[in-house]
Amino acid sequence: MPFASALSVDEDTATIRLAGELDAYTAPDFHRSIEDAARLDIGRLVIAMDELEYISSAGLRCLIFARQTLGEAVSLTLAGVRPAVARTIRMAGLDNGIEMLEISDV
Q: How many structural domains is the chain composed of?
């Protein structure tokens, strides 16, 4: 599946839907979506990951960038995280301070 990063907004919630593989090659697209979301007046950012098959260290850096850029005033939720991706996020310790709902929890 080719990588895709799409931003949508509904009231005070922005959603970035990810699909495919998030790696060093595709991370700049996700990074731009985060920057676009940060320019909005939102209270919550949801990153929909139910179609994300793989995340590399470059993708993890994007999640750190999102948390730092949005600040504590904006809640950050990773939704529909597949088990393999969730395991990578947890091993990096990025599940602290970011709500993570695995695909089985959605």
A: 1
pTM of the entire predicted model: 0.93
Helix (H) or strand (E) holding 16: strand 13-22
Instruction: For residue 18, give the CATH number of its domain.
Output: 3.30.750.24
The predicted-structure confidence for 51-88, as pLDDT tens digits, reads as follows: 999 999 999 999 999 999 999 899 999 999 999 999 99
Task: Give the containing element (helix H, strand E) for 35.
Answer: helix 27-38
Q: Which of 47, 26, 59, 34 is nearest to 106 (CA)?
A: 47
d(CA 13, CA 21): 24
Domain hosting residue 57, numbered range: 4-105
Q: 102 pairs with which residues across the strands?
A: 81
